[in-house]
Amino acid sequence: MRIGCSILLGAAALALSLVASASASQGAVRITPCASTEYTASIGDAPAQTPTQSPDQLTIVLVGDTGFNPKGAEVDPRGFKKNGKEIGFAESVSGVASDINGDLAFVNLETVITDRDDLEPDGKGQTSPYNFKSHPAGLRALLNTGFNLFSLANNHSMDYGPLGVEETLYHLAVAGAEHPIAYAGIGTNYEEATRPGCLELGDMKLGFSATGIVTGQREEHRAGQNKAGQAAYRNPKDFQLVLNRLAELPADYRILSIHYGLEGRVVPDKRQLTDWRGKAAQGRGIDLIVGHHPHVAQGVERVGNSLIFYGLGNFLHPGTAEMKRFGVCRDYGLMAKVHLAKQDGDWRLGTIEAVPLTGTHMKPERFSPQQSATRIHALNHLGARLGDGGTAQGVLFTPRSDGSGLYCSDDANALGGKIGAICKGYQPAPATPASIARQLASACADKPFYGAGKKKRKRWQRRRSGFERR
């Protein structure tokens, strides 16, 4: 454990109090940690805030898997290297910084955060495990860009064992003393690992939880009563507890992050449909479910008043492959901007902007408009395969001149404000041009793993058939 950790955390809590007090003297704080420490992801007792009116519209930016180092690399406060090229942290996010313009911005932090190189990597029972750690300066670059919702639950949270978990939590806590953020998914014990985070935007309260797979269902990676770790998504007890705690949190809007899926697969599997659509959306009414892990984008679905992103793909991770060689259905990460409006006391979907990203292994940025439009059609190809014939319907996006895609709810124009402006003149998604449709029929085939050989395909087929029998 970091020497003097409790003293430093106490200092961080004091810093939070001073920052909030200074802000209160200058005017009401727009986004703050929730006042109840039982449901806040920040450290210390949050000071009382001057109440403000809840906004009528909100924007949530979503991106996927993120880290700041290749496999096993040492941390460096100056930045990171990929294929012999060096880049600073601020520069690595500069290509999309102007797009991180929401009230809230979500990212899956798929790395241990530490400034130490003496942590012992976890072997995970593998011959050549992938272990990721990133310097806290990378986290600061994300904070300075506007990110304030952090999922910590994934198959790399335990890459450096319990000490790595404590390091990550320490640096997130310090960040929380300077910025109003929420994070969830790991903890020093089981209660913390399943605890939802919370933020207040005026008098609007947002609940946030995260869960994800652990490598090989390894029991030593699961949090325990007195053991650091993560709640395991594929453990039914863990998933149900995370879901229940979020659903029972007094909140106006709830976001659930889930790190799961078969790598390279662009179509959700049976577990995703059962758990995300069935249990989370239809069963518990979770407003927004955000998926990641397969490294590729999957489709988007509306389920009644809930919204599901089955896969966002990569955002910025030098530990992942350059995706260009995998074709137009797998070579991009998805950034989404979800615009909400308050109607009759409830927060409802107004519009979604979809932005395909390239360069996700080092410096994410937009495609050219024409290239981006092809990826929007690919996303629509996947969305058209979703839905259950009832309350669940796949979301289709209309390509725009800047290459992004747009979806507007039926009453978006009447909402006025930012949503009304975005949706002015909106027309539903057109049919995919025949030439692109032919290309997508092959590119979006439901392959088990990008670049997989015969042995891996056979192993995936056995896994899939075995799961379906269960």
How many strands? Answer: 24
**Largest sheet: number of strands, sense, barrel closure:** 10 strands, mixed
Overall body shape: globular
How many DSSP helices?
11
Q: Radius of gyration, rounded?
A: 21 Å
Our estimate of the beta-strand percent is: 15-25%
Proper CATH architecture: 4-Layer Sandwich
Question: How many domains would you count in the coordinates?
Answer: 1
Q: What's the overall average pLDDT, rounded?
A: 88
Ends distance: 41 Å
Helix and strand composition category: alpha/beta
Oligomer classification: single chain
Kindly describe this structure:
The chain is 28% helix and 24% strand. With 470 residues, it is of the alpha/beta class. The protein has a single domain (5-422), classed as Purple Acid Phosphatase, chain A, domain 2 (4-Layer Sandwich), CATH 3.60.21. The longest helix is centred in the N-terminal third of the chain and has 22 residues, at 5-26. The radius of gyration is 21 Å and the shape is globular. The two termini are 41 Å apart.
Summarize the structure.
With 470 residues, the protein is α/β, with parallel strands linked by helices. It contains 11 helices and 24 strands. It has a single domain, classed as Purple Acid Phosphatase, chain A, domain 2.
